[in-house]
Each structure stands twice: as structure tokens, then as C-alpha cells.
């Protein structure tokens, strides 16, 4: 989505504050047991390949933050935040503002959690579980505040966010705490287990999605959702408004799968729906008009600013508008083809005329060359030259 200047200013402010925190507080030499730390980082990179997002910006890789903080120190958690922000960007192919905001959000969340924790640490009982709950809650709460703030500033906040965030908190807490305890029992086994668990978890989610997808699974993290899924998605899942609906027509000469992959590379991680055999619906929270125009893909666009709208009517409007665009494009192609045929005919005619003119002139030129060498031209030859001319 196109952000207002004050939303961009807020994102830059969050990002700059995170750089200040890194400059003053990140000390790689203070990381306890660096070899084990880098092994965790390697495990995380493998886990990133099997990334599982639980709506919004929450992902299961947050598992490592409390482990790194309690066992390796504050700098270890900051270092992991850098990795989290950058690798997440590579995997998800996020836009620039999303990248720098996520980067600032996670680093400042760790920093404020650290400040809260060190100030109340002396008042806590010496029970690991209590310390973990406090850290986990503070980290979640500060992270959530940053997320809510940018959504409010960008005017896309929805009350359903609070309910969903709480449900995510309930779902993830047992998983996080199990991993926390498992690491203290057997660090090496836990590092192997985390990528496997995330892979199996993602596979389970994929199996659930495939009930809707049929043959629409294209490749890694590339989906084209069925019409049924889109209608269910809009009725239950979408809570960020406004969104843009783009209906695009498949280019001639490309297979459906190739065209979807082309769209995915062109538009990034948008939500796709095969609306008909040769038309695909793109649901986006950002404007992608320029990219579609550059690629010369016929498309129609509709902006949705409320969660109470008729999807069937919106698709009908898009379909009608795209039909007009397609007819206009077809007419332009027909005119262009007609012009090219006309030009080709003129070219053939010109080539034929040139050939018919060149041959007689060549004969006349030959006789003149003989004359210039001193040969006399008899009456018959002169008559032939006149005929050719």
C-alpha cells in the first residue's frame, strides 16, 4: 500500500532508533559460547526455509529469542534480530518499508524487553518459569505495540487484530516454553528438532490449504488459490483494509503455471486466485499497477476500503472493465497487424519493381561499357538498348 509521508517518517524513526541501539549495545565479543550460538544461527537459517507465519508478522522462529537472551546474553538476541530481519526479507521478498520497519520493530522490542527485565529482575523469585513468562510477555507486548502503532498511523488497523494476536499468544506460548526447556536439557538435539518441527508444522498447514488448492500448487511458497478459498478468505481472514483487487488476463503462448510463476516474480508475495481459466485475481495491500503496465499485462483494478462489500459484485465489475480493456487491446492489435500486412505488401511490391527496373538497366549498362572500351555498336544492339529502356 502507498504510505502517507508521516507513516514513512515513523518507519524511518523506528529504524534509526534501532541503529542507535545496535551501535551502543551490540557487542559480539560478549556472546557466551559463540560456537553454540553460531550453531543455533545455522539451525535458524535452515528453519527459515520452512518459514511458518501465524498471520501478521508472527513466526515460529521467535522460539530462539528467550533461549538466546537467557543463555547467551542480550547481544546474542540483538545479533539474531539482525538475522531475523534480513533473512525474513529474502524469504518473503518484502517491500523496502516493510523490511526496515520489521528490522527496527524486532530490535527495539528486544531492547525494551531487556530494559524492563533488568529493572524487575531483582523482584522476581528464583524460578525459571516465572522469569520466562515475564520475558515472553514483555517481548510479545512491545512487539505488538509497534505493530499496532504502524497500522494505526497507516490507517489500516482493525479490531480483529487484538483477538488474533491474543490467540497467537495462546498457541505459541506452550511451543516456545517446550523448546526453552528442551534446549536446557539437550541443546544439540533441540537445534536439530526445531527445523524438523517447523517443517512438519508447515507441511500440516500446506495439507490443509491443498484441500482448496487442487492442482493450483505451483512451487515453493507459490500458490494460486481456488475461487472457493478466496470467498472464504474474504469472509473470515482479511482484516487489513484498504486492499486492491487486480484481475489480469493470461498472456497468450504461456502455460498457466508459467504465467503464475511470472506473476509471482513480478508482483511479490500477493494472494492469487484463478477466477477463470485464463484470468487470475490478485489481492494486494500495495499498488502494483506500474509493474503490470510495464509487463504489458491487461488488467483491471478495484480498491476495497471496507470489510463490508460484495465480492461477487466486485469481481463482476472487474470482469466487465477487463473485457473493455481486452477488446480495446485486441482492436489495437488488429490495427497493428493490418498495418504490418499493408507495409509488408508495399515492401514486396517495391522489391518487385526494383527487380524489374534493374534487369533492363543492367543490359544497357553492359552495352555502354563495351562502347566505352572502343567496341562499335551495331544497329541491332542499339535497337535492343532502346527496347530495354
UniProtKB/TrEMBL annotation:
Coiled-coil stretches: 308-335
Keywords: Coiled coil, Kinase, Membrane, Transferase, Transmembrane, Transmembrane helix
GO MF term set: phosphorelay sensor kinase activity
EC number(s) per entry: 2.7.13.3
Positions of transmembrane segments: 6-26, 35-52, 64-87, 99-117, 129-154, 185-201
Lineage top rank: taxon: Bacteria
Reactions catalysed, as given in the entry: ATP + protein L-histidine = ADP + protein N-phospho-L-histidine
Classification via CDD domains: HisKA
Domain Signal transduction histidine kinase dimerisation/phosphoacceptor: 347-373
SUPFAM superfamilies assigned: Homodimeric domain of signal transducing histidine kinase
This protein's name: histidine kinase
Organism: Carboxydocella sporoproducens DSM 16521
Phylogenetic lineage: Bacteria, Bacillati, Bacillota, Clostridia, Eubacteriales
